[in-house]
Amino acid sequence: MMLEENANKLVSPGRGILAADESTGTMSSRLQGVGVDPSGEARRSYRANLFATPGCEAAVSGVILYDETIRQMMDDGTAVPDYLMAQGILPGIKVDTGAYPLANHDGEKITEGLDGLRTRCMEYFNLGARFAKWRAVITIADGTPSKACISANAHALARYSAICQEQGLVPIIEPEVLMEGDHDAARCYSVTAEILTATFAACEDQGVHIPGALLKPNMIIAGNDCAEQISREEVARLTLKCLSENVPQNLPGIVFLSGGQSDEDATAHLNLMNTMDENPSWQLSYSYGRALQAAALQSWASGTPEDSQNAFSHRAKMNSLARSGDWDDTLED
Ligand code: 5MM
Description:
Elements: H1 2-10, E1 16-19, H2 24-33, H3 40-51, E2 60-65, H4 67-70, H5 80-86, E3 90-94, E4 98-101, E5 109-112, H6 117-127, E6 131-138, H7 147-166, E7 170-177, H8 185-205, E8 214-215, H9 232-246, E9 253-256, H10 263-273, E10 283-288, H11 290-302, H12 305-322
Parallel strand pairs: 1-2, 1-10, 2-3, 3-6, 6-7, 7-8, 8-9, 9-10
Antiparallel strand pairs: 4-5
Bound molecules: 2-O-methyl-1,6-di-O-phosphono-D-mannitol (5MM).
2-O-methyl-1,6-di-O-phosphono-D-mannitol binds next to helix 11.
């Protein structure tokens, strides 16, 4: 079955996903952050250079694109999804339309985009997409997340997944528990367990075919403002424990988000999980945005296009090694 085949391709050994699906507002502010004037052409040329990195297909199985990018061209006029496909990289597409305030629940968000999703998926499939992504945002604070936020987002993730599969797209299910806040790792654990349980229960209700889907979760980490940070080993151990308790065994793979971790932390955590004895049934891989692009973006602004490709190539290689537990920090020098 094509869904299962593509899901397994995305988590094939030594490879992972590049999340390059920043919406126009986010990508523009990232470019402005390094001193580059944002425009459609600025976003295109930065990303086209990234995708053209020589040899990156060894570490990149798929790229998540944004609506603007899936319609853009590489420098030589080849359509971006056609170029990626020719390199053996599956094109993906972000299909949610963003996270908006959840009515009656201050500070909480619901991800929108279900209206018209079937039609948009048909168009994206015809443009070359073979997988999709939808991100739910869960904020930890006093009294949140609410039951309403958990159940509404879980329901939307499941509805999205069912529609994508119907249209031949592998859904990446991304329920992100944010790192912002002063909560400890135990609270991150319990909230992550709660959203994962609710999401997979909703997926079962909607008839989602789990062997044809991937999960993109956060790791178990104390909030940015928490005084008690935990070690890399603890992050890896707790993350695996939480996933083992709350994720179906027949899911082909887990592709983590980096969520604002440093580049090296994101790599080290993944590496540690891939060296642990627990031996989970799913592949453990990456779908990093910032942790794969931060250095490349900086070099795009301050160096040559080749410098940017070298920076991306290095991070991609480090994370590729982390897939088999073969990374260590001496390789970063
Ligand atoms: C790449 O950024 C994605 C889209 O973000 P916006 O809709 O806010 O512009 C985002 O969903 C991303 O794919 C995930 O958060 C993972 O990226 P990180 O940087 O957390 O690894």
